[in-house]
Design goal:
outer membrane lipoprotein receptor (LolB), chain A, 19% helix, 11-stranded antiparallel β-sheet, alpha+beta, 42% strand
C-alpha cells in the first residue's frame, strides 16, 4: 500500500512540474509576442492538400501585415490595420477580410494576454528544440485555432499552423527572421485604386 501512495505522490509531483513548466512557457510566449514591433522574414507555406508556395512576410504592429508570394502563386495579402486585402493577381480578384476572421490576429495584436479569457492555450508540447502551443479565441466562432511553434534557443517564432474554412491545414514556416527594423507604412497599403474602397 505504501508503494501505491509513493507512486501517486511521484505522479502528482511530475504533474505539478509539468504544469509549472507550461505556465512559464506560456508567459514567455506572451512576453515574446508583445515585444515584437516589426518583423521581416522569408516564408514557405505548405498545405495538407499538397500545395506549396513561398514568399516574403512583413509585420508592423498593430495589425499591419504584408505577404508577397514570390513564386508562381501570384497572390498578395496586405493589411493596413483596418482591413485585410487578399489579391489574386491572375484572376484579377480582390477579397476584403475582417481582422475578426483571421487567426493571425494573435501575432499582429499590440497587447496580447494569454489568460484563458479571450485567448485559451492547449495542446502544449515542449522538448529540447521546440515549444508548440495551440491557441483558441474563446469569444469568436469565426476564428479557428492557431498553433504557434517556437525555437527554444534562441527563443523565436518559427512556424504557425491554421485550418482554413475548407478544412485544409496550412503551415507557414519562417526563415531569416529580422526584428525591430524601420518599415514604412506605405508597405501596408493596397495601392490598386480599382479595388481600394478608400480611394473612391
Amino acid at each position: 500500500m505504501k508503494n501505491i501512495f509513493g507512486i501517486v505522490a511521484i505522479l502528482l509531483s511530475f504533474s505539478s512540474i509539468a504544469q509549472a513548466d507550461e505556465a512559464e512557457s506560456i508567459q514567455k510566449i506572451e512576453i515574446y509576442l508583445n515585444s515584437i514591433k516589426t518583423m521581416e522574414a522569408d516564408f514557405i507555406q505548405i498545405a495538407s492538400n499538397g500545395a506549396s508556395s513561398q514568399g516574403k512576410l512583413f509585420i508592423k504592429k498593430p495589425n499591419k501585415i504584408n505577404m508577397e508570394y514570390t513564386d508562381d502563386t501570384n497572390i498578395s495579402l496586405i493589411g493596413d490595420g483596418k482591413y485585410v486585402v487578399y489579391h489574386d493577381k491572375d484572376l484579377d480578384q480582390v477579397t476584403h477580410i475582417s481582422y475578426k476572421d483571421i487567426p493571425a490576429t494573435l501575432i499582429l495584436a499590440n497587447d496580447i494576454k494569454i489568460d484563458g479569457k479571450k485567448l485559451k492555450a492547449h495542446n502544449f508540447y515542449k522538448d529540447g528544440g521546440i515549444t508548440s502551443v495551440t491557441f483558441e479565441y474563446t469569444e469568436s466562432d469565426n476564428i479557428g485555432p492557431i498553433t504557434l511553434v517556437f525555437n527554444n534557443e534562441p527563443f523565436e517564432l518559427k512556424q504557425w499552423k491554421i485550418i482554413d474554412p475548407q478544412g485544409i491545414e496550412i503551415s507557414l514556416s519562417l526563415y531569416n527572421i529580422k526584428r525591430d527594423m524601420k518599415l514604412n507604412d506605405s508597405m501596408f497599403r493596397f495601392k490598386d485604386k480599382k479595388f481600394d474602397p478608400l480611394s473612391n
